[in-house]
Amino acid sequence: MESGMFCLLKLILIPVLLDYSLGLNDLIVSSLELTVHVGDSALMGCVFQSTEEKRMTKVDWMFSSGEHAKEDFVLYYYANLSVAVGRFQNRAHLVGDILRKDGSLLLQNVEEADQGNYTCEIRFEMESQVFKRTVALHVLPEEPNELVVHVGDSIQMGCVFQSTEKKRMTKVDWMFSSEGHAKEEIVLRYHPKLNLPVRYPQNWSRFQNRVNLVGDTSRNDGSILLQGVKESDRGSYTCSIHLGNLTFRKTFVLHVVQKELRTLVTPETLRHEILGGNHLVIIVGIVCATVLLLSVLILTLKKTHRNKSSETSTTVVKSLENTMKALPEKHIYTSIAIREVIEEEESSGKSEATYMTMHPVWPSPRTAPSNPPEKKSAGEMLKTEQAF
After folding, report:
1. Is the full-model pTM beyond 0.85?
2. What is the distance, to the nearest Å, from the Cα of residue 55 to the centroid of all Cα atoms in its chain?
3. What is the mean pLDDT of each run of 10 residues along the chain (388 residues)?
4. Collapsing DSSP states into helix, strand and coil, what is residue 70?
5. b/e burial code for range 252-280 (CB count within 10 A of at least 16 → b)
């Protein structure tokens, strides 16, 4: 009984230990790094280089967002069947040639959440050894797909397929579609085997001698340079990079605008420049402030003038009052003096008669008196002499 149980444990544990020991000898290749933009595609290579005749039976691609994060399946291949898993469905494709021990992965429409480490595991028939390779994927923000260029200038449109493997590109196509027209026109076609762009005379008149392939095709770069831009070049440009049966596409929308007229700087143009934009607002503000200050100044001057006028009027009135006051006093004094003289004359009429007698005013001998002097009585004559 015990010997039977021991044999059973041997049958279970020996394969497990054997697999574990063989796993220590797995062939692990140093990791690679790849940088792409959001919305682009990334080709992560996983090729086993060997001269031995080995048949690849299984390929697994795993994803981990960090060092200690849980790994998730991206894609697995087994028995000629390739299946993408989870959020990588319809975006992950096995593009390598299995017969050539190539299990490369193409990830399309890259998202920010795709940044992390991707590990490829390749297993071979009748072998427990596993070939592993890790690719660190870095994801950058999306590049602008709308470009603006002036008439007559040049514009470069980049179309780079990021890959850890070189010389994977089989063909590059550039197509143009003008605004409001569904029909596409060929801009440029390039076949790496021919090593030169293929031109089509029937559709080449628009871009003849104006389009050049400037990208490094050995690095999957199919960028072009469009020179002498015309208004008719306004529209959509689509780049297609072919990798066997798979195609990576990128579209740009080109906006063409007229160049701004540059004239000689003269006082008149300088004045117009100053009046434009924010300068006009500043000048209007200064004018408004000046008008306001002038209004306040005028009101202040008017008020001051009124105050001075009232003070002058008050002074004149006071001086007139003082003058009027002075004149009545003199008049009163004169009247009083005259009244006193009259009263004195009334009270002492005799004295005045005596005074007048003492200072007689005789008429000039040349003029005869109009009225003869009254005759005085003897008594009056006596009184006069006594008074003298």
Report:
1. no
2. 60
3. 47 42 56 91 89 86 86 91 92 89 92 95 88 94 92 94 80 88 84 64 68 88 94 93 84 91 54 55 82 85 72 58 52 44 47 47 50 52 49
4. coil
5. bebebeeeeeeeeeeeeeeeeeeeeeeee
